[in-house]
Amino acid sequence: MKPHHLLFSLLCLLIFSFAPNTTTPNLVHTVEEFEAKLKQVQPGDSIVLANGVWTDAELLFEANGTSEKPITLTVEEMGKVILSGESNLRIAGDHLIVKGLVFKNGYTPTNAVISFRKSREKIANNSRLTECVIDNYNNPERQVQDYWITIYGKNNRIDHNHIAGKKNLGVTMIVGLDTEESRDNNHKIDHNYFGPRPTYGNNGGETLRIGTSHHALEKSNTLVESNYFDRTNGEHEIISNKACNNTFKYNTFFECTGTLTMRHGNETLVDGNVFIGNNKPSTGGIRVINESQTVINNYHIGLTGYRFRGAFVMMNGVPNSPPNRYVPVIDSKVNNNTFVNCDNILFGAGSDAERSQAPKTSEFSGNIIYNETKKDVFTIDDDISGITFKNNILGENSETTIEEGFKNAKIKLVKDENGLLIPTSSKIKSKVSISPKIATKENTGTSWYSKADNYIALNSGNTIKANAGINTLYEVVKVSKPGDIIILEEGGTYLLTKAVKIDHPLTFKTNGEEKATILFERMMAFEIQNGGSLSLENISFNGTKSPDYAGNSVISTSKTSMIDNYKLFIENCEFKDMVVNHSFDVLRVSKGTFADTISIKNSSFKNISGSIAALDKETDDIGAYNVEYFIMKNNAINDLQGAALRLYRGGKDESTFGPFLEVEHNVFDHVGYGKKNKYDAALSLYGVQEIDIKNNIFKDSKAINMHLVVGEPIVKVLNNALSNSEKLIVTGDQKYEVDNQWEVAPEFDESSNYLLSTDSPLKGKGTDGKDLGLIKN
Amino acid sequence: MKPHHLLFSLLCLLIFSFAPNTTTPNLVHTVEEFEAKLKQVQPGDSIVLANGVWTDAELLFEANGTSEKPITLTVEEMGKVILSGESNLRIAGDHLIVKGLVFKNGYTPTNAVISFRKSREKIANNSRLTECVIDNYNNPERQVQDYWITIYGKNNRIDHNHIAGKKNLGVTMIVGLDTEESRDNNHKIDHNYFGPRPTYGNNGGETLRIGTSHHALEKSNTLVESNYFDRTNGEHEIISNKACNNTFKYNTFFECTGTLTMRHGNETLVDGNVFIGNNKPSTGGIRVINESQTVINNYHIGLTGYRFRGAFVMMNGVPNSPPNRYVPVIDSKVNNNTFVNCDNILFGAGSDAERSQAPKTSEFSGNIIYNETKKDVFTIDDDISGITFKNNILGENSETTIEEGFKNAKIKLVKDENGLLIPTSSKIKSKVSISPKIATKENTGTSWYSKADNYIALNSGNTIKANAGINTLYEVVKVSKPGDIIILEEGGTYLLTKAVKIDHPLTFKTNGEEKATILFERMMAFEIQNGGSLSLENISFNGTKSPDYAGNSVISTSKTSMIDNYKLFIENCEFKDMVVNHSFDVLRVSKGTFADTISIKNSSFKNISGSIAALDKETDDIGAYNVEYFIMKNNAINDLQGAALRLYRGGKDESTFGPFLEVEHNVFDHVGYGKKNKYDAALSLYGVQEIDIKNNIFKDSKAINMHLVVGEPIVKVLNNALSNSEKLIVTGDQKYEVDNQWEVAPEFDESSNYLLSTDSPLKGKGTDGKDLGLIKN
């Protein structure tokens, strides 16, 4: 270093050291200060948001830095600047950096929390969004749409952000290509932590979408690398690729119920990603549609999903498809991928009258498929002569109907440094390995914002006793904590003159033989509100004190939208004498609510004017529905005027999986005969995706009515006895399985109030070898 | 006065004057103080609530006074003690007086704001509720039920209360007879002011109910005297009498859209009441069902209601009726009543297969029926041989098909001191007069609480200019006042990136020839919230910037319940290019919302994927619906994929009147052909009560589909032209009128975008003699 250079450096140091505002230059405390400062800002400057909660702060960060001297918007201290209420951020200009903002406790009034543009014309280029957090920043209306991050412009980097808990309608992050200025964009999306996104129950729950069907044939040229997708289960498409020339590398998909889907656009590279299913239901891998797709070096383990959410899915296409339907698979390569204990790989999936074009000039080679329990994981839905199968390796005991291109090998699984089971065999030439660039929970997101779950389970809290009496349950709930268990007096009588609002997970149960009884004077005993889940055990509900109006229910969801999914468990309860007026239901839900699970077991229902569960409130027919898993086992239902269950999923959307239904070992005795039962059925099912109805007895009851419309539902109606009951009615255009629908009169055991099938071979046994109807304990 | 008496009096005076707490003895400031004081209270004492707002105060006033020394709960100053939030009051014990409490700004969490019992067992007797106010104290959930006053026990008086603005489900005041202790009760309900109760749009909007069908044959023996019912329009039954031996005297019904209904129970006396309709739609009088009813000396003027809300209605009954259906009319007298300019008097109303029993051994005599415009106001729906008609007087030009018991008289109307028009004639023997005890707005309620309306009309405020640009409308609305008119720039472009929330009445209009254009990026441009009403004039809406999701709409109601009815007017507007995704509606409403009026006139709709108005959200089939009056006139509708209108009123309830529908002089050109149009119709109408579809042109369109189920709807489909369109489809079991449904191809005037009928007699003219389709201005 020459002396005058040294001198200059020292001078600079002096100037910087003694500048008056070195500690936090350009610290701003209000939106007005921010806007004023922004007018003076120069390349190289930072604007620093002061610690604290910024409520309803709509920030427009519009400026122009240079490549050497970007302009930065950041925070006084990481994690201490919270944008809440109706806050959002727009970025417009060149060479901008945004770092450290946390959005929580609110939602955007616009269609994006953070947008890389001010308007269609004023966009951001060469800019970076890093270490920002968007956490549960949801519009309280589940069905009102917004995005969290919309990326426009070119050469932007979105990295190390923490983005968790989106629950309302709308993709979490999109890359928009609606103007020329946003195409061939060279964006990099890397090292982001995409935290849990629960099942949305409709289309519009994607986590990342690049492009739209309107611009499917435009090049996006976006790199999506080393991002961690942690249970991003919104819908079927975790990633929805809808443009050309994108790359997905080294991303980890942890227990995601869906797939990386090449929905539209060509020349995608999907390379070196890891999919970990842990045998959770509906976990999927990669789905290929369109042309010239390359899927290589991906590792999949423990994925159980089927049909469109298989571990690997190559779809059929529509001949001469318009861009918004299914372009056939052509010239695509699926090579050197590894599947360990994955249940389903499909070729020609979705084959139907419209999607009649099988894949062409494509290749599936060098893949390793190992499954310890399922012999044949392949489903061939159409002609596979257009796919070349080469050098694929199966485990020792595995098989496939595909005639060429597979050989068996003795495979041993060896744990690698990440704990993943790597297949090894003398027949595997190039060792399977996971890239060190693979995303982990640790190397994504930010270090200063916790990735811990804050979900509190039912029955995880303390036990609280509630004395019998008037509104004692109402009072005890007010002081309860999430997860608490409220114990009712054995044989006690509880009158509710106010509805008990459940806004956190709570259990109510009677300890002891004689159930406590709950009567209620309001239109509902319990109202599940946002954040609530409910478990009821060993309680008797009596409707004789309820108001003389149509539409009472024992349990109701909030009438307003619930952003959180809820759970409801009913075990060993009794519901009776709910006939003060018509349409008295046990469970009544509202539009804009969604249950992960509703389970009703070992309970009895007697003399009720409505339904047990009326889950038919999403009537817009856009694919929405009210429950994912509905389970009904071992219940005795007598004199129920409405349909026992009304389950409705309208529309023809294929981006969700549910509802799933199990109805097993129940007795339906005189069910569905009320004049107000508009479905004229004992069970009314519309558009349900998985139906398992078995080992039940229907006596003097209306029919099961199933309308099967979309999604190749799995429908099994097996080993049920009908006695003086209407026969199964099926409409729609999907397949189903019905077997052993016996028309017999079972014996009726008056004293114990359940029905018995006999041992006569004619009358039949359940699929499990047990008697039909209630299982005797 | 003896000297020592004087001395004693002076002593008393001294003691009272110098007692430390003479000013306000027993003043309490909190619920805890109230409860503590209550424990010490002695007959003759008062407990005085301190001035201020009492939030969430649930008061139980349980005590025992004596007939000479009642115990009083009152307030420091009248009108200055407000019970708000989740407050309520229960009264239990003997000889209690409650005076001066005001309930507003909240709602009760229980099923009653004020109840004359603590529990089923602990009731109030010999007690009085006076000068209390319940004002707009509504549960925000329109469909959650409560009562405002529930009266139990015996010998209670409810007088001079002010009870106004109930809007949620549930009768305003009930007399309960569910235990023996509440029957033959000798209650007096007098001089109460029942202020406006808007149309509820379902059953459950009664203002006063005595008894229930379950106790219909019990004696109530309640006197309802000198109460003022001011536009209590909740539903069909203003008063629902459901027990025996009640008396209704000197009550005034001012512009009430419904009737005093003897729904159940016998031996009712209805004497000397006044019904003033002022020719408002659906205003009614008295409806007789059951046995031994006496209806005398009532005065009716300007009542226009028909069918069950006629000025006078004698129903048919069900032979051997169960108590909750219609007990036939027997031994009833309807004498000396006066009807001035009332439009409908019915005998045998509701006659159908079930209600087949005509009235018997009854009498209609000495009544005066005068109508200046309608010649015959009588409707005879069944056999009237069981009714003796005697000495009734008709106006000079009136007539009836009833053969005996009527004579014409030259009648002159003379104003009495109340301004009511009294018929006088030489043939009228006993002069018609109104009792001086009749209720007036002045002699009912309290003097210290205003009865003024606080409704603010559309277009009653100031004019505000809104500049073209982004979110300028959003900003201007924030500073607007109810009734304001927001003026848009001629030809200006307005982009909304946030939905404009309308929570008070507002008008938006372009002044000048060229419409301003509104584009919007959210799922809706305008969201009508509780308290809002909207008028749009001369504006163009364009859907090309709206999100790529199913379910957008230009106007949406709040997704949460709206307790206030709203109005929507669209005049001379344009809606176009709303096809970004399916089911894009112009108006999308939510369950739990109700419009008084929706009027769409002189507007155009072009290239839209959904419906113009989707008013089909009340799917519980309990009689609820979404709009009272729907008017659609002189609109051009082109390429609309959904049904133009979806209007649904499920269930078989007869306690409401609407919806009312007018569809006139519109052109439907290629309407209803979308694959997602589940109704497969251009207009889908279900359970609508009045349908008037005339002078329209349907070209290349789906059908009008009407399902007619209940209420003897008035259905006219007249003088419409169908060109390559599906024909009218009618289902259900009700009558309708269809005439002049011409199947012709009208000329199509491309340039001016409307269709012309020709002058050819074959092709027809409208019912008004004008061309079909759009009226040229």
Description:
In chain A, the strands form seven sheets. Chain A has a 20-stranded parallel sheet that branches. Chain A has three helices and 74 strands. The first copy, chain A, is mostly beta strands and 777 residues long. Chain A binds chain B through residues 109-111, 119, 141, 143-145, 169-170, 203-204, 212, 214, 470, 497-499, 521-523, 547-551, 559-561, 582-583, 590-592, 616-617, 619-623, 650-651, 676, 678, and chain B through 109-111, 119, 141, 143-145, 169-170, 203-204, 212, 214, 470, 497-499, 521-523, 547-551, 559-561, 582-583, 590-592, 616-617, 619-623, 650-651, 676, 678.
Summarize this structure briefly:
Helices cover 4% and strands 39% of the residues of chain A. Chain A is mainly β. About 2% of the residues of chain A have low confidence.
Strand-pairing-aware structural class of chain A = mainly beta
Please report the number of helical segments of chain A.
3
Name the shape of chain A in a single word. globular
Percent helix range of chain A: under 10%
The stretches of 5 or more residues of chain A where confidence is low (pLDDT under 50) are: 10-23
Largest interface: A-B, 45 and 45 residues
How much of the sequence lies in strands of chain A comes to: 35-45%
Describe the largest sheet of chain A.
20 strands, parallel
Key terms:
homodimer; 777 residues; mainly beta; 20-stranded parallel sheet; 14-stranded parallel sheet; 3 helices; globular
Task: Give the topology, please.
The structure is a homodimer of 777-residue chains.
Chain A: H1 3-18, E1 27-28, H2 31-40, E2 46-49, E3 52-55, E4 58-64, E5 71-75, E6 81-85, E7 88-94, E8 96-99, E9 102-106, E10 112-115, E11 124-125, E12 128-130, E13 133-135, E14 147-151, E15 157-159, E16 162-164, E17 173-175, E18 188-190, E19 193-194, E20 208-210, E21 223-225, E22 228-230, E23 237-242, E24 247-249, E25 252-254, E26 259-264, E27 269-271, E28 274-276, E29 286-288, E30 294-296, E31 299-301, E32 312-315, E33 333-335, E34 338-340, E35 345-349, E36 362-365, E37 368-370, E38 378-380, E39 387-390, E40 392-394, E41 406-408, E42 412-415, E43 421-424, E44 463-466, E45 469-470, H3 472-478, E46 485-488, E47 493-496, E48 500-502, E49 505-510, E50 516-520, E51 524-528, E52 533-537, E53 539-542, E54 553-557, E55 566-571, E56 574-578, E57 585-588, E58 595-601, E59 604-608, E60 613-615, E61 627-633, E62 636-640, E63 645-648, E64 660-664, E65 667-671, E66 683-686, E67 690-694, E68 697-699, E69 704-708, E70 714-723, E71 729-732, E72 737-743, E73 747-749, E74 754-756
